[in-house]
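Q: Sequence in, structure out?
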Amino acid sequence: MSNSDAVNGRRFAGNNVAITGGTSGIGLALVDAFLAEGASVLTCARSPDSLAAIQQDRPGLHTVVADVTQPEGRSAFLNAIHTHFGDLDIFVSNAGLLVEHDFARHEVSDNELASEFSLNLVAPVQLTASVLAQFERIKAITLVSSGYALVTPTRSPTYGAAKAGLHGFAEGLRRQLSERQIHVLEVLPPLVDTPATAHRSAAKISPESVAAETLSSLHARRPMALVGQTKWLPLLLRVMPARIADIVSKT
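A: Exactly. Output:
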């Protein structure tokens, strides 16, 4: 990337970027943000119709149908990176889903739990391992976590547990990759305004705000992108842990 690219707001011009779950919400906002800055972008999703819909207005976008919780889906995603790019600069693990469970009232099946943890924790770790093994020149790993990694929401203990696991993975991975100078960024947004959160009345931020802070944090090589209300969350949890945890857990 030239200095003129950075000055003109194209900080990621010439970079190859692969993003999981890029057809809506934060994922789609990240796709658009990287494309706007001159990056070559590939994204995946389980629905071919959803991929076709977003690609229609983004002719430069590469897509592949892939369920990253399955070995064949992860292989399809990685093979598409090799086919379209040959090499990779930035990997963004974004695909995830908050599922509400009330363990006090209902039994949650083994299959439900396995599926949820596979998407929110296991698949990001597995894909990160494969990306690091197959693309030696990679510059950055970005893991989209959540403010709920720091305070588990009452409505979804499993989501908080999975994101807390991803938070710990990012922390340890950052230390391991420091000698290779690979930047590990964890993104911790608060409640985001998407169709999946339409039923929640708490304060929300836009997916575009999350994407903007993610790119800024990548460019500045920060360890974490604390977005919106989460900017002050680590400090407040030290000052008023019980009170802040109670407030956040109810969002």
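Strands lie at 16-20, 40-45, 62-65, 90-93, 140-144, 183-188, 224-226.
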